[in-house]
Amino acid sequence: MNYIEVNNNQRISVFSIPVLEYDIFADVIANFLTKDIKYHCVNYFGFPEKGNVKLICCIADDSKHSINVLSSIVNSNDKLQSITTKHFALHIFEREIHENFGIDFIGHPWQKPVRYPFNRADKNNIIANYPFYKIESEELHEVGVGPIHAGVIEPGHFRFICNGEQILHLEIQLGYQHRGIEQLFLEKKNLLQRTTLAENIAGDTVVGHTVAFAQAWESLCDFKPSEALQFERVLALEHERIAIHTGDLSAICTDIAYQLGSSVFGRLRTPIINYFQQWCGNRLAKSLIRAGKTNFPFSEQLAEKWFEVINAYKPDFKEMSSEIFDMPSVLARLEKTGTVSTETATSIGTVGMTARASNLNRDIRFSHPAGFYQKLNYQPILGKTGDVHARAKLRMGEINASIELITKMLDKFPKHDIKENVMESPLADSFVVSLVEGWRGEICHCAITDENGELKMYKIKDPSLHNWLALALSVRNNEISDFPICNKSFNLSYCGNDL
Amino acid sequence: MINNLKILYHQGKQYIPDVTTVDVPGIFRGRPIISKTVVDENKLINVCPTGAIGANPVSIDLGKCTFCGECTFAFPEKISFTKDYKISANSRTDLIIKEGEESQILLNPEQIRTEIYNFFSGSLKLRQVSAGGDNSCEWELNAAGNVNFDMGRFGIEFVASPRHADGIVITGPISENMAEPLQICYDAVPDPKIIILAGTDAISGGIFDGSQALNREFLKKYHIDLYVSGNPVHPLTFINGVLSLIRTKK
Ligand code: SF4
């Protein structure tokens, strides 16, 4: 066998992952990815091992609900045939491996830096001289935006090449937010420190990333969380989705200068995030999710409170959202703006709501459900047009779907009547893939332990890593003044990319 | 148009009338109180993920605390968190709460520069710089300006250009890759100007303290006018902190 088939959150021995010659490794990956749309790469990374670099690739099989894992051992001086030439979606992973270890991928169209990590292979590459794509022409001009943007948001640099008001090309350069988080996962030794790190990967996806971490950790420890714990995580994930999607609808309205929509969605978000505070004391749900336990057990009162909040939210949300999708002046700005075709979405490997708005069915809740999601049989909502309108409408649809889902879940929910099992420490020489559908899309954490059960590799992938390119491509041939709404319609994570 | 007016009418009043006295809903963890009960101090100190708990006397440094609450779950008789969200200080050491202390955290008027009251008490424009921030503090700072918290009513606003600003608000532990843009931004703000650190990550590095990917040299060079605790900062903490900074007369 050239690969091992695992399930989401299934611990396996690291030795059971087949190690292939690079050429065969590359062929197996390319064969999967070019064969059928049901395959996509959820993570592909390298890490140092005994003076070499070990590459591990995880290919999800959406119809079998499994993940195929394979590996290869290479050297940092190697020149390897790029797989990107056969399947473009791998471009970002090869760029990252190139940046971290210096491995050259022959035929890769653009081995540009991903995030300028502190431990990159070439320290002479610094963020201030990123090699931007250029077009020499007297008729074109460049517009540089960032790293610090006009609003209160994270930093990143956008370089536009424009023909008058029209964008020909946009290149997005990130890395400003790099905090060395993957390395800190290895250095900080206690569980609470690591959980806190997971909460801080992306502060707008606290639940998403912390659930991915908690489930990876529990799998490493061979710990099975109780039903009540699993239930709470799904509830929190769906509630986080409602909160952020509402906030993003407000942001989209702000950027089309529709003050009423901006204010109404903005204030509607407040009770939703305040609910997290009522549950766990933090509006963004920091401290809510813990591996192996919870400090804030869900209760009948919290269920009642949730209905109270949502019953007040629903009519106002419905009124406002029907209005925006009915107003010609709003629709004129959203429709046919920032379009990502299904073809593009597929070829660059988009995930999550970005993919779904372009009619590409990528949803971990459906394809690789873990924990309580296995009971729910969630059916993803798909958009058709892939434009700002589709992404905005998808958010509305997903808010309603999440409300429905939670309502159903609260009908009869598992209680903490049995004591949680005791969680031991991670087992030695183990490997696990943990996939969670956060509000942006597929979050993937991979972990490996050494012979003493200590973490020796922790790899984080935020869905933004795939989706930033979708934003860059979506704005081509759009007016530069439409960039803000395109950007907001995706709302990608800078720190999730930069780590 | 009619629909829009209807929607407007349905909103009722959304703003918080008095942001200095309003109660926060739920189980907010604000200023802690540490009792004199004797506990196993080593054990207590080891609970904390960021080294915020000190010994002799037992203390919690709100510049390091992530407000995770684990210490109070482990030692409920020793540590409790009140719902007091006024947890800003203008002197770093005032964020360290010691055993037995139950008083509110107040700004030290002696340390507030005179220019601040003279120039900014009625209007303060701020440029926000996220330097490795995880987008949670950034979120809450945006929320401080929304229709609920409505910080704009006090003349406090975030602006796009540093040239229009009276100071900067830093979030995040300051990544190496943001060190230069941060400096350039600060230099572009006209004098007199203030610096506010918002959130645990900015104040101490938080959970990122010790990461080789950070560069916190900037903070050694300048006087910090306000430290706003939180992970992330609560909008009410921020608004109240800034209000006391600009409204306190020496
Ligand atoms: S609440 Fe603060 S002091 Fe207590 S354990 Fe958490 S970080 Fe440490």
Topology:
The complex is a heterodimer of chains A (499) and B (250).
Chain A: E1 4-7, E2 12-13, E3 19-20, H1 22-35, E4 39-49, E5 52-61, E6 66-74, E7 79-81, H2 91-101, E8 104-106, E9 141-145, E10 157-163, E11 166-173, H3 181-187, H4 191-199, H5 206-220, H6 227-255, H7 259-280, H8 300-324, H9 328-334, H10 342-347, H11 352-357, H12 364-367, H13 373-376, H14 388-410, E12 430-437, E13 442-449, E14 455-461, H15 464-474, H16 483-490, H17 494-498
Parallel strand pairs in A: 3-6, 7-8
Antiparallel strand pairs in A: 1-6, 2-12, 4-5, 5-6, 9-10, 10-11, 12-13, 13-14
Chain B: H1 2-10, E1 32-34, H2 41-47, E2 53-54, E3 59-61, H3 70-74, E4 79-81, E5 88-89, E6 96-98, H4 114-120, E7 124-130, H5 136-144, E8 156-158, E9 167-171, H6 176-188, E10 194-198, H7 200-204, H8 217-221, E11 226-228, H9 235-247
Helix pairs in contact in B: 5-9
CATH fold field value of the largest domain in chain A: Cytochrome-c3 Hydrogenase, chain B
CATH architecture of the largest domain in chain A: Orthogonal Bundle
Low-confidence stretches of chain B: none
Ligands (ions, cofactors included): iron/sulfur cluster
CATH topology of the largest domain in chain B: Rossmann fold
Could you say how many structural domains of chain B there are in total?
Answer: 2
Strand order of the largest sheet of chain B: 5-11-10-9-7-8
* Average pLDDT metric of chain B: 91
Strand content of chain B: 15-25%
Radius of gyration of chain B: 19 Å
Count the E strands of chain B. 11
User: What letter string, H or E per element, gives the SSE order of chain B?
Assistant: HEHEEHEEEHEHEEHEHHEH
Multimeric status of the protein: heterodimer
CATH class type of the largest domain in chain A: Mainly Alpha
Please tell me the overall pLDDT of chain A: 93
Hey, which two chains have the biggest interface?
A-B, 64 and 68 residues
